[in-house]
Amino acid sequence: MVISVFVAFVVGGLICTIGQLIIDVFKQTPAFMLSLFVVIGSVLDGIGLYEPFIDFAGAGATVPITSFGNGLVHGALKEAEQSGLIGVVIGMFQLTSAGITSAIVFGVIGALLFKPRS
Amino acid sequence: MKEALQVRVGQVSYQFHTPIIINEYHTIAGPLEKNGALTAYIDTFIDDLYDGEKTYENCYKKLICDGISPLLKKHPDVQLLFTGDLLNQSTPTHLALTNRALTPITFDHACANFGLSLLYGALSIESQQQAAVFAGTMSHFAAVEKQFRFPNEYGQQKPPSSQTTVTGGGFCLLSSNGTGPHITGGTLGAVIDEGFSDPYNMGEAMAPACFHTLLAHFKDFNTTPKDYDYIITGDLGSVGQNILYDLLREENYRVNRNQLIDAGCEIYNKNQPIFSGGSGAGCLSLFLLSKGLKVYFKKPTRALVVATGALHSPLSLLQTPHIPTIAHLIVLESK
């Protein structure tokens, strides 16, 4: 338990450090860094590496945005196995729907409670 | 017949023969500036970045309105205001002056607007087109962040080299009689592009423009930094000021570190979260028309005031990753 928490902390922290370096050293925007991480996550899952990575690092692999890319590809591939080509579009948001829905719901709550524009 | 006195000096400079005096002035600033280093010298403050308005942009408009109103009330016959703000088409200025008998001459030189405004105000008096004119600039932190960077709510990280747009500014009356420091000359800058492209390091991009204008001035007037008590720069921040110091030393101009004053470094206290200093169109006008005139120009002083501006837009930066910059200079003397 302690070891897996430690591994998750270090691995997740390392991913965030790389993100910070992309902003600070390579002078990229946060949006660029986020998109890049989503792409990296999806490519890693496409070649079958993200699942073992999750087994190794746990939350360290699922909390950073790379896991969103993994979720997109993973859902699409899984559904494609069952429904063929159409499954790619059906499955794309299956695993990520929780994240997307909560983003919308909490966005609405935030906008109702606070000033949404300045 | 008396020969007309030469106004144009050298390549890009002007020497004024009629006295052009900064007679009256009014400064206004925001909440961060209220806790800063100039509190005792600034005339009025607003308590938050909305000041009762619905949007930051409307507050920007209100700041300009409140800044110019006290002067306009006393001098309703003045026709021109030389100015320029930081939003598209100078909308805050134009909205603020709606239905007033004052014509705004708005420049598009960002933070260099104040220098250009004073210079053109002075030129219009020197050429006897006007007896008196207003000049001044204003900026608003949140409205300008939204225009040039990201809305505050986005929570964009800023590196230590970035600067903080000043909320506030000042307006002044230029005329040929009265008491106050005299504008005796000026030098116009040209657009300089040294290839810098980091909008979070404007000091680095603007220092070369400041340097070019200073060199042109020293050449045209045949002077050196020794002939002036201070070189007051607009908003180079601590990064840009150090670069300017190095550039001047490299050119063998002996400048004293105490001779260089940067408005962006003077407005705030050391412990305020402003990164490398203040910036914005109102930065120089706020400093010069408060502590500048009330402390530095109270005694006999001869100083160069250089307003530096970055001329990029968020779109231009995406299409052409360069920040062109410009600097305009005036010679300000008090006796």
From TrEMBL, chain A:
Keyword Ribonucleoprotein in the entry? The reply is no
The UniProt keyword set, sorted, is: Membrane, Transmembrane, Transmembrane helix
What the entry lists under InterPro entries is as follows:
Spore_V_AE, SpoVA
Q: What top-level branch of life does the organism fall under?
A: Bacteria
Query: Transmembrane residues, as ranges?
Result: 6-23, 30-50, 85-114
Classification via Pfam families: SpoVAC_SpoVAEB
Q: NCBIfam families, from UniProt?
A: spore_V_AE
Name under which the protein is recorded: Stage V sporulation protein AE
